[in-house]
Amino acid sequence: xxxxxxxxxxxxxxxxxxxxxxxxxxxxxxxxxxxxxxxxxxxxxxxxxxxxxxxxxxxxxxxxxxxxxxxxxxxxxxxxxxxxxxxxxxxxxxxxxxxxxxxxxxxxxxxxxxxxxxxxxxxxxxxxxxxxxxxxxxxxxxxxxxxxxxxxxxxxxxxxxxxxxxxxxxxxxxxxxxxxxxxxxxxxxxxxxxxxxxxxxxxxxxxxxxxxxxxxxxxxxxxxxxxxxxxxxxxxxxxxxxxxxxxxxxxxxxxxxxxxxxxxxxxxxxxxxxxxxxxxxxxxxxxxxxxxxxxxxxxxxxxxxxxxxxxxxxxxxxxxxxxxxxxxxxxxxxxxxxxxxxxxxxxxxxxxxxxxxxxxxxxxxxxxxxxxxxxxxxxxxxxxxxxxxxxxxxxxxxxxxxxxxxxxxxxxxxxxxxxxxxxxxxxxxxxxxxxxxxxxxxxxxxxxxxxxxxxxxxxxxxxxxxxxxxxxxxxxxxxxxxxxxxxxxxxxxxxxxxxxxxxxxxxxxxxxxxxxxxxxxxxxxxxxxxxxxxxxxxxxxxxxxxxxxxxxxxxxxxxxxxxxxxxx
Length: 568
Description:
Structural class: alpha/beta
Number of strands: 15
Largest sheet: 6 strands, mixed
């Protein structure tokens, strides 16, 4: 792959000095004076001399060409990106510049034979620690507009090449995992393919391949009750432990089949057969969740190829590996502050002991699925596994990352907080008459200009936050949620009183943190109100338990969990 990428990059980046001739319009008589466009910012080929006149190798050459043709030559200096457009509009007759021949450009102009070949390079400071292309991810790079350096990552040909590689990759993946799931015995090399996107040591390099092989022999570190590598996840669907994820239209697998039946894609018989076909479920998960989210979790979609390559590894494989222990540690850091984040209301009934319906708090941890790539992002794929609210959310993380895992988890948890509330509230998620996290926060952001409880500084700050989030209210909330966990919980007050009040009501701190904040004027009143509400809830729980015991019932594990919730 390294050789392939080298060739591909060479095809895109190699800059040949070309004399670009006439446009692709119908030929016309050569004028007596040739107006030649250039971009005089590329010494020694073309530049402006002390007299503010174009000079350089290219300028001398085109003047000699004009002399031999018996034509006068006028040099017109302009922006590089404007050269081809100027020729097409007949503003100039020819271009003399360091312009790489590309398929797109050849459709507009005729190129001369190459007379000089050079290469493009990325220029760094002498003391820079950047040694690999992958280390440039997230960095700003200066390019000249219209050049091949500018179009490299967006070139249509390159994009098509990446898409075709990805398409073949997922077909191979599907065929290989089908056989592996059926046989239930796979080699470490296949696990490296399924769980990391590894295909060949020539693509990854011998050193990283050896590191990855060592990791593959102890992949159990990446799996737990709620953390799955991709192979383990697909296997769990194949054996019926988990159901496939909902698709982008929020349809679960049965609803998806029903939709296919309605639009005539499958027959009623096929619908019935596929309903319990475990491989069809796995296939749906690959096509639905895996192929789309793998790119998103990788982070840099414009350069994404699903095959693990040497440039993806910026540290050692061991350092970048996302284990179940690291995931759980990141989750616990949030739960130790926002204790209620994964608790849901469930219903309990026992008519035999005089209980018709009682709401109990139950903690439902998310399923974390590790995508087979070395990525920089995480995402919340869905807030519940199906129609029931007491099923696990699904978080997607890269199996290897150089990013801060705590930050990735915190951002994902913030989105979960928002989307879970939306699911619970349904169509009323932004109706202020139905008090909830999303309705109050939506009202706060929507009408902030009229809010007398906000200072001019707070309004300006919120205005900027909305601009940065492109008016996406959820993303504004996520930023506040990050501040809530990282700073407000530690007594570093960075939020305005309105946002602080909303988050305290719906994302309360654990008792230890509440106790430490009681002395703060910013929290005193809120904590007092919270204690009153919790006191009422505790009395209700005690009365419920007493009633249940008197009717002859024994406390269940879920009742104990519910009681412990109100002590947090």
